[in-house]
Design goal:
- Residues 50-183 form the AAA+ ATPase domain.
- With 333 residues, the chain is an alpha/beta fold.
- The protein has helices at 10-18, 31-46, 64-74, 90-98, 116-128, 165-169, 182-196, 202-210, 216-232, 239-248, 258-270, 278-285, 289-302, 317-323, and strands spanning 54-57, 79-83, 105-109, 130-135, 142-147, 152-157, 173-176, 306-309, 312-315.
- 47% of the residues lie in helices and 13% in strands.
- The strands form three sheets. Strands 2-3-6-1-7 form a five-stranded parallel beta sheet, with helices on one face.
- The chain binds adenosine-5'-diphosphate (ADP).
Length: 333
């Protein structure tokens, strides 16, 4: 159930796609960003032009891809999907941009992971709908300007701080997606359960919502595991099934998963509450620093279990209490 942003297989991917809301009205929560996007899309429609470029930032699974699809759908434009890691050379981007049809919405996921050379090409493309293609090498090299069809770029990033300023500045609007509160996740689960034909009592729904790390993708996945459990054990998708399924998948009472707990445990027990540097912490739990920083840490900070100081990450008394570890000030909370 670990959410690194990539659905684990084709079936899960298909179900995830089927559960995506296709309009802003159906999109649960994120009231602020929804209102901002609505205005942007309405203005573009009235002026009959492609919408300004949009940057969406926030941890995985909060709805960035879904919003990109909604932008295309609501403005009646086609959508092209790509991602930063797939754009390793300026040439990859040139091929992509020059094949766009007028008004097309281009979604680039993990836009902070694009090659530097492509980034520079993108500045010009975003601003002037033009790129310069380099032909030849060395002294004989020349650049040929190429006009592009106007397009709307929707960039997604888990960390907007990683984007170089010139790139960030070229987006007309940046939407910051926040973790969802349990009531909002209940609505996500209710909607998904109805679509999947799962009869889920309100208490079971609330329990899934409470233990989904504020993340719709995780809520939808937990729901599917609960459904699996009910099917296999020929029982109802009730609170007991929720508890059993979550236990099986190592989701604890407040929704932390194994990696969350491993990080907390290392911080509290091994590094005595910190401060400890990100890479040291990552090595201790055998994960990539980027995963710790963009997936694990934001949630632990948000629930007040971890703090970030100039000298490194620190555990809060609440983290000690959750692990049942004695706090150094002598109080067992
Ligand atoms: P991201 O691109 O931020 O990683 P996605 O847009 O892929 O996240 O969303 C992951 C899953 O969560 C999708 O299946 C989508 O249907 C669901 N989802 C995300 N946000 C919402 C929302 N606000 N309302 C309903 N479902 C949502």
């Amino acid at each position: 159930l670990r959410d690194t942003g990539t659905p684990e297989d084709e079936t899960e991917l298909a179900i995830e796609g089927a559960l995506r809301p296709s309009s802003l009205a159906e999109f649960v929560g994120q009231k602020k960003v929804r209102g901002q996007l609505q205005l942007l899309l309405d203005a573009a429609r009235i002026q009959q032009r492609p919408a300004d470029h949009i940057l969406l930032s926030g941890p995985p699974g909060l709805g960035k891809t879904t919003l990109a699809m909604i932008v295309a759908h609501e403005s009646g434009r086609p959508l092209r999907l790509s991602s930063g890691p797939a754009i390793q050379h300026a040439g990859d981007l040139a091929a992509l941009l020059s094949s766009l049809t007028p008004g097309e919405v281009l979604f680039i996921d993990e836009v902070h992971r694009m090659a530097r050379s492509a980034e520079e090409m993108l500045y010009l493309a975003m601003e002037d709908f033009r790129i310069d293609i380099m032909v030849g090498k060395g002294a004989g090299a020349t650049s040929i300007p190429l006009d592009l069809a106007p397009f709307t770029l929707v960039g997604a990033t888990t960390r907007s701080g990683l984007l170089p300023n010139p790139l960030r500045d070229r987006f007309g609007f940046t939407g910051h997606l926040e973790y969802y509160d349990p009531e909002e996740l209940e609505r996500v689960v209710e909607r998904s359960a109805a679509m999947l034909g799962v009869a889920l009592p309100p208490q079971a729904r609330a329990e899934i919502a409470r233990r989904s790390r504020g993340t719709p993708r995780i809520a939808n996945r937990l729901l599917r595991r609960v459904r699996d459990y009910a099917i296999v054990h020929r029982t109802d998708a009730d609170e007991a099934s929720v508890a059993a399924a979550l236990e099986l998948y190592d989701v604890d009472s407040i929704g932390l998963d194994r990696l969350d707990r491993a990080v907390l445990d290392a911080l509290v027990r091994r590094f005595r509450g910190g401060p400890v540097g990100l890479s040291t912490l990552a090595v201790a739990v055998g994960e990539e620093p980027e995963t710790i920083e963009s997936v694990v840490e934001p949630y632990l900070v948000r629930i007040g279990f971890m703090g970030r100081t100039p000298r490194g990450r620190v555990a809060t008394p609440e983290a000690y209490a959750h692990l049942g570890a004695p706090h150094p000030d002598g109080v067992i909370r």
